[in-house]
Amino acid sequence: MKHLTREEAKSICDKVMSFSKADECNVQIGGNRTGNIRFARNAVSTSGVVTDTQMAVAVAFGKKQGIATINEFDDKSLEKVVRRAEDLARLAPENPEFMPAVAKQTYKETPTFIQKTADIDPEFRAQVAAYSIEACRKKNLVAAGFFTDVTSFSTVANSNGVFGYQRETGLDFTCTVRTEDGRGSGWVKRSIGDANRFDAREAADVAIEKALRSMEAKALEPGRYTVILEPAATSDLIGNMLGGFDARSADEGRSFLSKKGGGNRLGEKLFDEQVNIWADPWNPDVAVLPWDGSMLPRERTEVIKNGRVNSLEYSRYWAQKQKVAMRAGHGNMIMGGTDKTTAELIANTKKGILVTRTWYIRMVDPQSVLLTGLTRDGTFYIENGKIMYPVKNFRFNESPVTMLNNIEEIGKPVVIAGDEVPYQMLIPPMKVRDFNFTSLSDAV
User: Fold this and answer.
1) pLDDT tens digits along 225-250
2) Alpha-carbon torsion, ordered 386, 390, 395, 398, to 10 deg
3) What interhelical angle do 200-213 and 122-138 show, nearest 10?
4) How far is residue 368 from each of residues 233, 237, 359, 402, 421, measured CA to CA in Å?
């Protein structure tokens, strides 16, 4: 099914609500076209395009709610999905945390759509794979990777007059390069909304260089080291922490932001003064929809300011219960930095370890956000401002809260989508002291 235009989406939403006999009705429609190409062992393995459009209808009779979904949009099907949602609502118990549909809202459009990205075709995808494959063949290396591009639209509406429609685009590329004997491995990730800013050759070259440099890795004793974490290494660590900036879990004593004796740590200084993190739906590098899952309009929000906890996320129910203003949930996270490159951070390091990527991260202790995980795909020893040699990978036990208190230098933020978190992120590389490596890993 082709993507719905704004007018088509509005017509469908109005028709759905005209069918509803419930006290309130909420409609969400989402459609996407996802192109992809996958390659492994220096050959393309799969490619194609997947399209889908889905609609969810949520209704309520008093505090009894029902929801149903459908991917057919003729009048008979639209009425059928409304009746199904209403039948479920009548059967459901009352929701003690029920919140009525939001009042009519105004959404300020965000820059989520780029035509160049929407125009990506099979030839473009094939060329992305070809750059990696051909370059690796010339150097007797083995490439594997996955490229996806997405063009989508989102619509929200309700019986109080809410209506929002917006298109989005984005692309994501990961590539792993191995030496033929398996002793060297390099990796790269690019997550970008604008195809004009994506350079497949540059990305592949990063993974190739890491693979070639990571051969003959030496073992270092586990312990606490100064580390330079590239953005891909930083994003999942910090992302796990940012997911805990929820007021309810803090107020109920379930997070690192809980205060002994009750309440939360809003306003407290928990991090180095260099740490500034905010959400901004209009940032052109990581733009997101101007509304959240509750249909509330997003706004720029300072999350951490000069090391202090500046704001927490509140669900509509918890905001009402705690008698605070309702705010939309974040869709992205942006960390402030400098103009320094990773190379400059390396040049300013007397002794340390460069970490390309963190992987297989698991929570050890939610109350301190202690995480465990592994380094991989390029870990290097630094001495007197130069990369000296590759080192065997480590397992680490570290908390991003502690990490953000041990910052020595911050670099220039880049766009990356964390594997462990649902945010688009703009995150810098950073130099951190006393990072805790607990054991060695045989993985490359």
Assistant:
1) 999 999 999 998 998 898 889 999 99
2) 10
3) 30
4) 19, 13, 20, 9, 18
Kind of pairing between the strands at 185-192 and 163-179 = antiparallel
> What distance in Å separates the CA atoms of residue 441 and residue 355, rounded to the nearest whole number?
14
Closest of 120, 215, 240 to residue 173, by C-alpha: 120
Residue 253 near residue 287, CB atoms below 8 Å: no
Paired tokens of 166: 């917006």
- Tokens at 423, concatenated: 């945010």
User: pLDDT tens digit string along 7-41?
Assistant: 999 999 999 999 999 999 999 999 999 999 999 99
Give the residues across from 372 on adjacent strands. Answer: 362, 397
- Distance from C-alpha of 427 to C-alpha of 300, rounded to nearest angstrom: 17
User: Quick one: angle between helices 6-19 and 75-91, nearest 10?
Assistant: 50
* CA dihedral of residues 359, 360, 363, 369 (deg, nearest 10): 0
Minimal CA–CA distance to 203: which of 179, 186, 227?
A: 186
Query: pTM for the complete prediction?
Result: 0.93
Q: What angle do CA 344, 350, 354 make, to 5 degrees?
A: 60
If one counts every other C-beta atom within 10 angstroms of the C-beta of residue 45, the result is 12
